[in-house]
Amino acid sequence: MNEETFPKTLLGAIKYFADRDNSLNFMVQIHWPEGVTCPWCDSSEHSFISTRRVWKCKSCRKQFSAKAGTIFEDSPIGLDKWFPAVWMIVNMKNGISSYELGKHLGVTQKTAWFMNHRIRKAMQTGTFKKLSGEVEVDETYIGGKARNMHKWKREQRIQGRGGVGKVAVMGLLERDGEVRAQVIGEADQDTLHKAVKRNVRRGSEVFSDGLEGLQRP
Ligand SMILES: [Zn+2]
Helices (DSSP H) in the chain: which residue ranges? Predict the structure, then answer.
């Protein structure tokens, strides 16, 4: 998509992305700028099954959608909602509440909160891709030894949840240097497992520091 075709108004964005082909093409452009490749084996030999809107890899024979390997993968929310949400979060300079987001998208406030949260996180890391490769999982606490925690604390405060004692933070460190951290409410294993699943691409090796029982997601 070039600048001329990119929707300039919210109504334009909603209309544009409501067209499933537009949504799909946009996803392909940001996810695979060099051309579609299989997320399982990296092959670029595949066929598109238009009725199901998925690709079938000719090499490993697995199927994959445009959401595969992205933060959108494990949610039932369509790209026709995700992209207008991205548009709003990026363009509304004064910020947008989950309530407003939900109203514009026609989703519940809870869903809108989830989308808002996930999109903002992606904007911080600069990618909609899930982390891949070797990942280290590290559990720490705000106020503890971790160096970057003040940033997260600030965000917690903005969201109105600060100052409630210790908040568990899980940092996922990609070995090649990209760091992604996630604030979670509690530090029990179940919560961590879920967070790892959400953020790490299937097939990545997960290394745990002080946590037992973490498996490949
Ligand atoms: Zn493949």
Answer: 10-18, 20-31, 79-91, 98-105, 109-125, 149-158, 189-199
Alpha carbon of 69 to ligand 1 centroid (Å): 13
At residue 181 the predicted structure's pLDDT band, cuts being 50, 70 and 90, is low
Residue 93 CB neighbours (<10 A): 6
CA 37 – ligand 1 centroid, Å:
8
Helix/strand/coil percentages in the chain, nearest 5? 35, 15, 45
Centroid of ligand 1 to alpha carbon of 144 (angstroms): 43
User: What predicted TM-score, i.e. pTM, was given to this entire model?
Assistant: 0.57
Q: How far is CA 84 from CA 70, 88, 98, 161, 172, in A?
A: 17, 6, 13, 27, 28
Distance CA 130, CA 127 (A): 8
Q: How far apart are CA 29 and CA 7, in angstroms?
A: 15
By three-state DSSP, how is residue 188 classified?
coil
Q: pLDDT tens across 122-175, in order?
A: 777 767 777 555 555 554 443 333 333 344 443 433 333 333 333 444 455 554
**Degrees (nearest 5) of the Cα angle 101, 104, 106?**
100
* d(CA 126, ligand 1 centre) in Å: 26
Measured in angstroms, how far is the CA atom of residue 42 from the centroid of ligand 1? 6
